[in-house]
Amino acid sequence: MEIVGTATRVTIYIGESDRHGGKPLHMAILELLKAENCAGATVTRGVAGFGAHSRIHTAAIVALSADLPLVVEWVDDPARVARLMPRLIEMVVEGLITCQEVEVLTYGHRELRRLPAAAPVSDVMSREVRTVTPDTPVAEAVEMLIGKAYRALPVVDADHQVVGILTDGDLLARLRLPDAGVQGALSSAELGVELDALRRSGQTVAELMVSPVVTTFADAPIADAVHLMTERGIKRLPVVDRGGSLVGVVSRVDVLRALAQPPVRDAAERSPVPGAHKVVGDIMLTAVPTAPADARLNQVVDLLVTTAVRRVVVVDSAQRALGMITDGDLLKRATAGERAGLLQAFADRVSSARTIALDAGKRTAAAVMTSPAVTVTPGTPLLDALRLLLQHKIKRLPVVDDQGRVVGIVGRGEILQALAQELPGG
Question: Which CATH number fits the domain that encloses residue 64?
Answer without folding.
Answer: 3.30.70.120
